[in-house]
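User: Um, what's this?
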Amino acid sequence: LLAAALARPEAYAGLIVTSPRAVAAIERQRARHGPLPEAWREKPVYAVGPRTAAAVRALGWTPVGEEAGSGAVLARIIITAAEHDAEGAARPYLFLCGDRRRDDVPHRLTEAGLAVEECVVYRTHVRAGVKLPPASPGGWLVFFSPSGVEAVHPGEVRASGWRVAAIGPTTASALAEAGIRASAVAAEPTPEALLAALQAA
């Protein structure tokens, strides 16, 4: 499915990747099937955060939206760009995602009248029932993904005594949905932004 999609860049308005794992799937296809069509270089490749953008650059493409700290912000960037490219926006966007992806990007784009074709390129296996160590004074329990939130029991987190932090708004939303309040949320998914959020809390 991914190989077929990547073979026809002319069918898409652009490419959306929100995780380095999605970019790794493209790299695996390139290793198996050879170079990707040059036309992808002319398409916008939307990427959330510096790690995903760096992975896109390693493919030889130029990422758009690196500064977006979440899928919701990236969706706004795509919608704004589509307003200035009516011809391109008439085609669907190819969204490479995992099986446990959140709805922010496809939902917001669809609401704005843009078509999205999703292609699941990796699977996340949640390790359930993770036991938390005893809280240490001034210690933080940091969540780096929504699947990390699923790995713990919300009641145990609330009763643990740990202060809770999230690597970004998407993970903070997952915490809130589980009834866990994040005391610190990184403005973007980088170590520097996380450190700044912890220091400011």
Q: What stands out?
A: The chain has two domains: 2-122, 140-200. The radius of gyration is 18 Å.
